Structure formats: C-alpha cells, structure tokens
C-alpha cells in the first residue's frame, strides 16, 4: 500500500498509488478530516485516488510527484491562456 500516516495529522501518498489506495485514503480522511495529504512522492495516482482528493479537499503538501497531476490538480492550476494548444475562446 502506498497510503500511510506520517503522524496523526498527515497522510502520505508514495509511489504509483493504484486504485486499491482510494479506499484506505478515503477512510483515513474520514477518520481525520483535517489531515493534510503529502503527495510529493506520489508518482502516478490512479483517477480513483485523484477523485478522493478532489472530493475530500484536503490541504495538499508540496508539489505532486507526478508532473501532469501537479499541473492540473495543484491548488493553483494554470490559467486557460497558458494551456498549450488553446486555439479558440470558449467563454462565449
């Protein structure tokens, strides 16, 4: 399992973080809703793990170890103008 507790207030995601980690992550977040999630060592989170993070909304510690996930799910995602390949205005 790649979901562990470093201390009572911090949950650590490390390695690949497969689908099987979504349930333990959810359980830990339900047990301690104020816990932060340290995802600096998370190298490729399964979408189920990402969904738990998005739904629970924990404080995220550090940049995610997966560059793509960090780019799109970090607390400050890139502005639409900064997205490569954007060729039309979708706001109208």
Short description:
This protein is an alpha/beta fold. The chain has one domain (3-82): Transcription Regulator spoIIAA (2-Layer Sandwich), CATH 3.30.750. The chain is built from 3 helices and 4 strands.
SS class? alpha/beta
**Beta strand %:** 15-25%
Largest sheet: 4 strands, mixed
Work out the oligomeric state of the chains in this entry. single chain
Terminal CA distance reads 46 Å
Tally of helical runs: 3
Total number of beta strands: 4
Compute the number of structural domains: 1
Shape call: globular
What is the helix/strand order?
EEHEHEH
CATH class: Alpha Beta
Regions with pLDDT < 50 over 5+ consecutive residues? none
What's the alpha carbon Rg, rounded to whole Å? 15 Å
**Helicity level:** 25-40%
- The CATH topology turns out to be Transcription Regulator spoIIAA
Mean pLDDT: 86
Can you tell me the CATH architecture?
A: 2-Layer Sandwich
Strand order of the largest sheet: 1-2-3-4
What does this 3D model show about the protein?
The chain has 92 residues and is α/β, with parallel strands linked by helices. The chain has one domain (3-82): Transcription Regulator spoIIAA (2-Layer Sandwich). The protein has 3 helices and 4 strands. The chain has helices at 22-31, 47-56, 67-73, and strands at residues 3-7, 10-15, 36-42, 60-61. Strands 1-2-3-4 form a 4-stranded mixed β-sheet, covered by helices on one side. Strand 2, helix 1 and strand 3 form a beta-alpha-beta unit. Helix 1 (22-31) runs parallel beside helix 2. The radius of gyration is 15 Å and the shape is globular.
């Amino acid at each position: 399992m790649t979901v562990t507790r470093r201390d009572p207030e911090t949950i650590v995601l490390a390695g690949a973080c497969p689908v099987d980690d979504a349930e333990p992550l959810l359980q830990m977040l339900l047990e301690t809703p104020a816990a932060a999630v340290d995802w600096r060592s998370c190298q490729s989170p399964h979408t189920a793990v990402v969904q738990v993070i998005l739904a629970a909304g924990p404080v995220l510690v550090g940049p995610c170890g997966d560059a793509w996930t960090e780019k799109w799910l970090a607390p400050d995602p890139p502005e639409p103008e900064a997205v490569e390949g954007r060729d039309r205005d979708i706001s109208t």
